[in-house]
């Protein structure tokens, strides 16, 4: 055990687990079929490849790493292996562990794995805690007050001030819960050292979120208009809240 985690190696299969789960994590934990009826596909957002896992002892989200775009036609779930430090599931696990331990609103990581395959490639998966009684921002816009949009802006600013860059900040990777907002899916995320207040990546992060919100049907959701909600988010982000 190192840094509060357990690492297990079985030939080409390697897993890392939060210390709370000790040595009970097995390769079957990363196989939705092994969970049987306890695993239910996640239907909202993403490319698929995610399942809710619910048992008497575990409430989690299992996600396999899948490619997008043109390359997905040929290598849907395979990634070039360039050493364990660059395995995407392990990088996300360790980032989530650091953020969770520091009190940021992210899901607690449970375990991650990768398996070497032919042609110097690997496949990977991750298990994180399920944030119960939450819903994606995309499904919640009709229920949020202007004050909550301001609160979302303040939450995003907290991440940015700490140098935390989410690689795919969109309205499905923000969850809304009674106690606030949570960011999920930190694949390819990173912590930048000594971030400048006006660093370009921060503006790009927010622009990506706005584009995803712009694709939603605000009228059908009874959510008012995007402009006024986004203005409230920016007020919170800039700290202009009375």
Automatic annotation (TrEMBL):
EC assignment: 2.7.1.166
Superkingdom of this protein's organism: Bacteria
A Pfam entry, by short name: Kdo
Keywords annotated in UniProt: ATP-binding, Cell inner membrane, Cell membrane, Kinase, Lipopolysaccharide biosynthesis, Membrane, Nucleotide-binding, Transferase
HAMAP family, sorted: KDO_kinase (MF_00521)
Sequence similarity: Belongs to the protein kinase superfamily. KdkA/RfaP family.
UniProt function note: Catalyzes the ATP-dependent phosphorylation of the 3-deoxy-D-manno-octulosonic acid (Kdo) residue in Kdo-lipid IV(A) at the 4-OH position.
Name this protein carries in UniProt: 3-deoxy-D-manno-octulosonic acid kinase
Species annotation: Marinobacter antarcticus
């Amino acid at each position: 055990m190192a840094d509060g985690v357990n690492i297990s190696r079985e030939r080409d299969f390697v897993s890392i687990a939060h210390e709370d789960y000790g040595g009970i994590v097995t390769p079957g934990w990363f196989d939705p079929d092994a969970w049987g009826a306890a695993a239910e596909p996640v239907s909202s957002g993403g490319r698929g490849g995610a399942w809710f896992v619910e048992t008497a002892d575990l409430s989690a989200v299992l996600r396999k790493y899948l490619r997008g775009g043109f390359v997905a036609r040929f290598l849907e779930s395979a990634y070039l292996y360039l050493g364990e430090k660059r395995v995407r599931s392990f990088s996300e696990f360790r980032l989530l562990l650091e953020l969770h331990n520091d009190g940021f609103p992210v899901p607690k990581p449970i375990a991650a794995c990768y398996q070497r395959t032919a042609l110097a490639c690997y496949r990977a998966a991750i298990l994180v805690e399920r944030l119960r009684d939450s819903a994606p921002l995309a499904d919640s816009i009709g229920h949020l007050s202007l004050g909550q949009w301001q609160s979302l802006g303040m939450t995003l600013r907290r991440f940015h001030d700490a140098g935390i860059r989410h690689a795919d900040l969109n309205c499905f990777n923000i969850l809304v819960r009674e106690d606030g907002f949570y960011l999920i899916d930190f694949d390819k995320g990173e912590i930048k050292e000594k971030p400048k207040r006006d660093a370009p990546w921060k503006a790009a992060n927010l622009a990506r979120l706005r584009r995803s919100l712009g694709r939603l049907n605000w009228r059908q959701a009874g959510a008012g208009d995007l402009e006024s909600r986004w203005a409230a988010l920016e007020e919170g982000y800039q700290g202009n809240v009375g």
